[in-house]
Automatic annotation (TrEMBL):
<feature type="transmembrane region" description="Helical">
    <location>
        <begin position="69"/>
        <end position="96"/>
    </location>
</feature>
<dbReference type="GO" id="GO:0000155">
    <property type="term" value="F:phosphorelay sensor kinase activity"/>
</dbReference>
<dbReference type="Pfam" id="PF07730">
    <property type="entry name" value="HisKA_3"/>
</dbReference>
<keyword id="KW-0472">Membrane</keyword>
<feature type="transmembrane region" description="Helical">
    <location>
        <begin position="126"/>
        <end position="147"/>
    </location>
</feature>
<dbReference type="InterPro" id="IPR055558">
    <property type="entry name" value="DUF7134"/>
</dbReference>
<feature type="domain" description="Signal transduction histidine kinase subgroup 3 dimerisation and phosphoacceptor">
    <location>
        <begin position="175"/>
        <end position="239"/>
    </location>
</feature>
<keyword id="KW-1133">Transmembrane helix</keyword>
<dbReference type="GO" id="GO:0005524">
    <property type="term" value="F:ATP binding"/>
</dbReference>
<keyword id="KW-0067">ATP-binding</keyword>
<dbReference type="InterPro" id="IPR011712">
    <property type="entry name" value="Sig_transdc_His_kin_sub3_dim/P"/>
</dbReference>
<dbReference type="Pfam" id="PF23539">
    <property type="entry name" value="DUF7134"/>
</dbReference>
<keyword id="KW-0902">Two-component regulatory system</keyword>
<feature type="transmembrane region" description="Helical">
    <location>
        <begin position="103"/>
        <end position="120"/>
    </location>
</feature>
<keyword id="KW-0808">Transferase</keyword>
<keyword id="KW-0812">Transmembrane</keyword>
<dbReference type="InterPro" id="IPR050482">
    <property type="entry name" value="Sensor_HK_TwoCompSys"/>
</dbReference>
Length: 371
């Protein structure tokens, strides 16, 4: 514990209570000693009272120096009976706030001091073994109580740490999901914008009809990109599951949109019938990322899309393109395929990609489709 800081109200109440317990223990013990005929010099009782008073006062320092204080009290308890209350309070503090090994060492020293006490100051009417057993039982009960609280607090702290780690992991997963959504959704739209804007740049002498048609596509793509951006930002305010998500049935529209933008792409087949939501959504993202990469890295290439499979065998997504018809614009490698691989893994599937003979590229994903 940090004894340098100011005590709060609860700590003042606790410290006052344990101080009063130590004082009460000393007063009761002193009263019993006065009622009996002491077989020892009167000066020893006076020293015992003085030592007991110092021990009770030292209880207020137990938060700052618990181990040094308990060692001093252990030494004093070898001859002082009235310091016992302060010793028990400090033993309890050490057991609660210090490592178990330290507590056991202190407890062992306390037992040794109890043996020394019963040898130096035996009770004429009480057997030595009984007196020693009583002292060991009291100290053991106090230390056991303190260790119980110590372990309980450690379990609570461990649970809080694990909860914080789980919350951090959940936040990380949400950020990853947002990043994937933004890349998949906006990358598709912005690649369309880039293709058509590049066409206007490299063909300033294009016919007015072509310029008008290209400008209309750019305007429509920009509008749809803005709508998609609003939906993606909605992930920050609501769970992903509450937002509209694409399905396998939307692949037709996705391919048609790319074809309308001037891309040479053909959809060969798509399974009919219901497909699991997660598999269908992931398949859509695979096709979307594949077409986006064709536009970015293989401009003018011909591409084909095929989605095959049935329940029990899984869903296979294939996007293949030929060699580019023009030199792609320079740019840094992105993280689209990395995010796509993470998507496939989260769906229980796998993703493969690589070049094909002739300069093309092949993107394949397999996704589970339970029977």
């Amino acid at each position: 514990m940090d004894g340098a800081r100011r005590r709060d109200t609860r700590e003042w109440v606790v410290d006052s209570a344990v101080f009063l317990v130590a004082v009460l223990y000393g007063l009761v013990t002193a009263g019993l000693r006065l009622d009996s005929v002491p077989p020892e010099p009167s000066w020893l009782f006076t020293v015992d009272q003085f030592t007991g008073a110092l021990g009770c006062a030292a209880v207020w320092l137990r938060r700052r120096w618990p181990v040094p204080l308990v060692l001093v009290l252990v030494v004093l308890s070898t001859f002082s009976e009235l310091v016992g209350g302060a010793l028990l309070v400090t033993l309890f503090t050490v057991a609660v706030h210090r490592p178990v090994r330290t507590t056991m060492w202190v407890f062992g020293l306390g037992l040794l001091a109890a043996v020394v006490y019963v040898v130096l100051r035996p009770e004429p009417d009480v057997p030595t073994a009984l007196l020693l057993a009583f002292g060991v039982a009291v100290e053991g009960a106090v230390v056991g109580w303190g260790l119980s609280i110590h372990h309980q607090r450690r379990l609570v702290a461990q649970a809080e740490t694990e909860a914080a780690l789980r919350a951090e992991q959940a936040q990380h997963e949400v950020r990853e999901e947002i990043a994937r959504e933004m890349h998949d959704v906006l990358g598709h739209r912005l690649s369309l914008l880039s293709v058509h804007a590049g066409a206007l740049e490299y063909r300033p002498d294009a016919p007015a009809e072509d310029v008008e048609r290209t400008a209309a596509v750019i305007r429509q793509s920009a509008h749809e990109a803005l709508q998609d951006l609003r939906e993606v930002i909605g992930v920050l305010r609501a769970p992903v599951g509450e937002l509209p998500q694409p399905t396998l049935a939307d692949v037709d529209a996705l391919v048609a949109e790319s074809a309308a933008g001037g891309m040479r792409v053909h959809l060969r087949e798509v399974p009919a019938g219901p497909v699991p939501d997660l598999a269908g959504r992931t398949a859509y993202r695979v096709v979307q990322e594949g077409l986006t990469n064709v536009r970015k890295h293989a401009p003018g290439a011909e591409a084909s899309v095929a989605v095959t499979g049935r329940p029990g065998e899984g869903l296979t997504v294939l996007v293949v393109n030929g060699p580019p018809a023009a030199t792609p614009a320079p740019g840094r490698p992105g993280r689209g395929l990395t995010g796509l691989g993470e998507r496939a893994a989260l769906a229980g599937g796998r993703l493969e990609h690589g070049g094909v003979p002739g300069g093309g590229w092949r993107l394949t994903a397999w996704l589970p489709w339970p029977a």
